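User: For a benchmark we're assembling, each entry needs the component sequences followed by a predicted structure for the full assembly. Here are entry 17's components. Please fill in the structure.
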Amino acid sequence: MPRFCHRYDSEGMSTHIVILGGGTAGTLTANRLRRMYDAGECRITVVDQDDDHVYQPGLLFLPFGLAQPRHLVRSRPHQLHAGIDYQRSRIDRVDLDARRVHFAVGGWVAYDVLVVATGARLLPEETEGLTGPGWGENVFTFYDLPGAMSLRHAVQRFRGGRVVVNVSDLPLKCPVAPLEFAFLADWYFRRCGIRDRVQLTYATPLDAAFTKPVAAKALGGLLADKGIELVTEFTLGEVDGAGGRLVSYDEREVPFDLAVVVPLHGGAAYVDRSPGLGDELGFVPVDPHTLQHPDRAEVFAIGDAAGLSASKAGSVAHFEGETLTGNIARFLAGRPVEPSYDGHTNCFVETGFHKALLIDFNYDTEPLPGHFPAAVGLPLLKESYANHLGKLAFEWLYWHTLLPGRELPGIGAEMPEQGKTRSPA
Amino acid sequence: MPTATYADTAVPVDDEGFFTDPGRWSEPMAEQIAEESGIEQLTDRHWTVIRFMRQQYAAKGTGPTVRVLGKTSGVSVKELYQLFPKGPAKTAAKIAGIPKPRGCI
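Assistant: Structure for entry 17:
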């Protein structure tokens, strides 16, 4: 790795890398960079508005009593290696010309390299009626901690009726999570002995259970096996909590007694206040292979905050980390950045009954059956107990391997081809 | 590759009928494609969206999603569905002679 960070500004200060966001992507980026450069070579600052780092994959399990909230939250600064500055501040805007980040309370910090890692923001108020009557009573989301906790009470009180799980529109974090919620709801109500009194529906704006054809077929088959109705091309226009109806823009209706809605997503609010930084939805459009901003060579984005066609998932942030930090080093050394990120994504999909399936894909290759990471390994696109254990083991790996910016055992950033089965179309 | 004939001109399209070469499109073709998509007559509002789709494709290399259209075209998502009932982003892209918009995930 090139170690060229010896650019000093007019005041004799060393290079300053500012990372906006102390979540999965920002934390692993800061820790990787800290290992690459000595403290004297480079100053690294992480900025976030609060100190709560939430293990987001755990939110899925909260409503079913399979996780406890106090185990999901840790201190953001405590996940950062020594020698990384942590600034707890709300960001007002980024001035790209002056290379400064302005804070809401006043003051600013200057950067030589800026990494946008502020993730995605939930925008329930952008859907008509979603935060109106019924919000928190019979309409919920499990995509944040308070939402998942109030849904837990509603699920525990539920004695029968129509449950709908709905994705309002793309993009969304962890696109398989709503499917997992439906699978776990089937399992939960069976275990409670009331499944025959619960009608489960999955309503999606997609034309199938998932985007990519082979996975869509496998996941759609699981929905059918579990007796979960699939409603496709349903783009949520309005939520009528009092009347218990979801209404699509093309005026179809799905009735419910309990609605679990994934709200619209956008980028962090300061992106909209920073001319030239983001796109229409507040995500930062960067090159899909180098992660560099098209107009500003010193600006990069990683994880959910990036406006890419890759999934918004922790595994993506992890696989992007190597490309991102390598390219920051190349940029600082005056060398060309490398287009090494291939869109690699890897998701355990919890399917209930102590089973999970695993999908692994990138920009060019859809999720395929076979084994991961090689011919001997976890089964792909197929339910197994081993994958369920993998999903549970991931929580430990998240805090102890992924956030510190280390490699996962046996899994590289590039998508493995070995072990996958390509069947004729 | 399949072709379709609009305004007496054969043009290459994909399996779902989207143009693969937006340069081959001309305005007279739009009425005919619209009719095939179940839209009787193109109004000024339809044309606002069609021209916006082509402009976005030229600038970004892909047509916008419904949500982005609603935020940027000056036509609300609700009205977009009234104008193009069977899915605004796809239908408008087809009529505007641009490839199928790339989704996310």
